[in-house]
Specification:
The protein is of the alpha+beta class. It has 5 helices and 8 strands. The protein folds into 2 domains: 42 residues; 153 residues, Lipocalin, CATH 2.40.128. An 8-stranded antiparallel beta barrel has the order 1-2-3-4-5-6-7-8.
């Protein structure tokens, strides 16, 4: 198993440092990253308590066929970029906002404008997680899964539930004129069978 992990990480490194044959290397890097996450995820379980820095939105296809077409990959990028932009308007910016998970089952999402507190449950073995935000987000509950990545983890939720979270964040932050952008996400998400959306997190 250790040899497999080392080999996969070597592929990731090689794909990341090479400068020629862009599109092919991008595909190879994506395949290697996914393979590394799957292998590492079967060996190492994510320990959630502590402080995590939000790195942007994550999109993953967990049901049906895996994303393989150029159009589908473009759709995933579109969802990530638009969701990132909307959350940034609500004060949750990549590289700035943090999740703090405490040992007592409480957590806080600290953005630029305010902190959103709540409670959580997490099964480290299965990766299943439930976030229960407090009154600030009208007691919003989000059920999802935590997946290990090569540089942190992804916390993924049902797409509709994640969009509800985005809407509540924007409403609470009194952001105006976001409805049109939010509405354009729906058809793009629908084009991705079994898509889950969430947070990219890094220690």
């Amino acid at each position: 198993m250790k040899k497999i992990i080392v080999a996969i990480l070597a592929i990731v490194l090689a794909a990341g440092t090479a400068s020629a044959q862009g599109s092919l290397l991008d595909k190879l890097k994506g395949i290697a990253n996914e393979a590394a996450s799957q292998v590492l995820g079967s060996v190492i379980k994510v320990s959630l308590p502590g402080t995590w820095v939000y790195q942007g939105c994550a999109v993953d296809v967990t049901a049906g066929d895996k994303v393989s077409t150029i159009a589908a990959n473009a759709a995933m990028v579109t969802v990530e970029e638009k969701a990132d932009n909307l959350l940034a308007k609500g004060g949750i910016k990549a590289g700035v906002a943090t999740f703090v998970f405490n040992e007592d089952g409480t957590f806080s999402l600290v953005g630029e404008k305010k902190a959103m507190n709540g409670t959580y449950t997490y099964d480290q073995e299965s990766g299943n997680v439930v976030l229960k935000f407090g009154k600030l987000l009208n007691v919003l509950t989000m059920e999802g899964v935590v997946k290990l990545t090569t540089d942190g983890c992804e916390m993924l939720f049902d797409a509709d539930k994640f969009l509800s979270f985005v809407k509540k964040v924007l409403t609470n932050a009194k952001v105006k004129n976001y409805s049109e952008t939010l509405s354009t996400l729906a058809p793009v998400i629908e084009s991705l069978t079994g898509a889950d959306i969430g947070f990219k997190l890094k220690r």
